[in-house]
Specification:
Strand 1 and strand 2 form a beta hairpin. Helices cover 46% and strands 20% of the residues. The longest helix has 30 residues. The protein folds into 2 domains: 73 residues, no CATH class; 61 residues, OB fold (Dihydrolipoamide Acetyltransferase, E2P), CATH 2.40.50. By secondary structure, the chain is α+β, with helices and mostly antiparallel strands.
Length: 156
């Protein structure tokens, strides 16, 4: 009857894995299933726990890295939240220096500072180098060939 507890634990860990998607809890679920097999064979509780722990560790350190590598080769990593803002264009709405400033980034006004400590005037196009807490660290946007054509060859 003890094997049912192990199977119940494995099912619960499987459901939690569907929420987390880390491929960690499913490895623990595999260990719980191994514990269920040990319990079904009549092993003492201590042996069941050891079998579950060893199986989970083996799965965690051998199968999980292989699965993650295979998954990353098939599906490119999609950055989300603030990590997706790095490299995006923004426009300064207030003077930005090495300490303080404001930029309009992705439709929102963010606190900002320059990466090199320089001062940028309002209306300057910038690129987000990184997000530091709630502050966008920015630098001047590189001049494109289209900008040089509009300004002319002498001002490029």
């Amino acid at each position: 009857m003890g094997w049912l507890w192990w199977v119940g634990g494995a099912l619960a860990l499987g459901v939690l894995e569907m929420i987390s998607l880390d491929l960690v809890l499913i490895m623990f679920a595999g260990g719980a299933l191994a514990g269920a097999v040990a319990a079904g064979l009549g092993a003492p509780v201590l042996v069941q726990v050891v079998v579950a722990a060893v199986t989970a560790a083996v799965l965690l350190f051998t199968l999980r890295p292989w699965l993650l590598g295979h998954l990353r080769r098939r599906v490119p990593l999609q950055e989300t939240n603030v990590h997706a803002l790095v490299g995006r264009d923004a426009v300064t709405v207030a003077s930005v220096d090495g300490v303080t400033g404001r930029v309009k980034l992705a439709g929102e006004v963010w606190s900002a500072r320059t990466a090199d400590g320089s001062t940028l005037a309002p209306g300057t196009s910038v690129v987000v180098a990184r997000i530091d807490g709630a502050t966008a660290v920015v630098g001047p946007a590189p001049a494109s060939a289209g900008d040089a054509a509009v300004r002319g060859p002498l001002t490029a």
